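lol so apparently i was supposed to do this last week
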Amino acid sequence: MRSPTPAEQYPFAGQQLPCYVAGEFVSSGQTFPNANPVNGRVIATVTEADAALVDRAVQAARAALRGPWARLTLQERCALLRKVADRIEQRFEEFLAAEIADSGKMLAQAKSLDIPRGAANFRSYADLALARASECYEMATPDGRGALNYTVHKPVGVVAAIAPWNFPFLLLTWKVAPALVCGNTVVAKPSEETPSSAVLLAQVMQEVGIPPGVFNLVHGFGPASTGEALVSHPDVAAIAFTGETATGAAIMRSAAPTVKALSFELGGKNAALVFADADFEAAVAGTMRSVFSNCGQVCLCSERVYIERPIFERFVEALAARARALKIGGPYEGADLGPLISRAHRDKVLSYYRLAREEGGEIVCGGGVPQLGDERDAGAFIEPTIVRGLREEARCVREEIFGPVCHVAPFDSEEEAVRRANDTRYGLCAAVWTSNLQRAHRVARQMEVGITWVNDWYLRDLRTPFGGAKLSGIGREGGMHSLGFFSEPMNICVKL
Ligand code: NAD
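anyway here it is w/ nicotinamide-adenine-dinucleotide bound
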């Protein structure tokens, strides 16, 4: 078992994590503990923003809309965002250590994905904003002089950016960067489980000279806490939220009286379809990734794997052999599978493992808690699990579990595969594995989701639309779609 080196140590060990309001770090008021999911130890405390502090943050953001921030040109805002990206890279090791300590993520993943993508979000939205064109329509008028219509993009106002714990930094910056580049001001709320990288981001904002009030950070819980105070605040104009579908519904209710703009990226119950003509090895490897990445805690993970009958048994065997061989361990141990985010989440996932048995499923592999024989047994580790034999109506086939688990089932025809994949209230993404080009296009298009991958999974180009159909979300983020959400387009009609 390898522990973090001194350079990899959690930067806030034993400290109280502050909020950041109007350009100042605030540590007054109640606190809650921040635990490391590897061993359950409390590593820091977190300042919980009450309604009064949330109000101060929103008022600071509102005032900043009329301050120096409003006088910056788009080019100047973009230059500042690039400095944010540069500074994140300069402080890369601290971001890495903070993210890993909060979430228990594997070092290799956090190093190659979570933190680099956080920096990339600032650069790529700066690039996109500079490339955005403005619509222009010339029109005829009865007097023959004509008129010119052109669109200007104005900020929406104060944006609430609310992120979950599975990709804390990647998903928070995915909202903060486009909101800022469009000239808005932000009150960010990371998940109560993963507050640390957001504090580093606040430090970076201060260091590179983002004016006070433009970026504010509040910590706390959702219902009857910081989150609810933020989303019901009358001076918040727009909410960009990623999290559970049920939370999205609650936020909608809170936001309804003041009619806020909403962008929602919600839960999923994603299907992978593996056809008999697929490249077998690539499909097995890809499905392993799509089921077990980040310990199954990716909204895009496949929790339902449908496999064409001729290869079903062989595919399940290959998948189970690899799942059994996954090395479970802490972030610095070169393991494949880390802990879940918390004991509470592990209890939830374990309750689905039990339910799968009660619903008549057969556990092909896993199904329990590993014994690691040291302090990690106080952490939130769980076995990677494959289930077969459940009916389509089983709760384990219908509800998002959000752990390292999938249900495998055979299918006999393309039409059946498509029907079963779409037989869900969610609609985030799908993976289709086939070497038949015509089938690939035909099936991909029929998926009732926001994103279909063909012969891969989680391959992301930040310019593309990202989001879900049905219960998986409202609207699209990514590329120009994000710039659209975070801008108020205004038409100006000039008589010539
Ligand atoms: P969650 O909904 O419990 O919490 C997300 C955030 O919302 C947290 O910051 C939380 O404090 C806050 N929150 C909770 N209740 C609130 C309320 N009433 N008002 C305001 N804020 C509130 O989600 P989670 O458990 O942190 O994350 C896992 C979920 O996120 C899964 O369902 C997963 O599928 C989803 N997710 C979706 C995407 C996507 O892009 N579609 C990406 C990642 C995660």
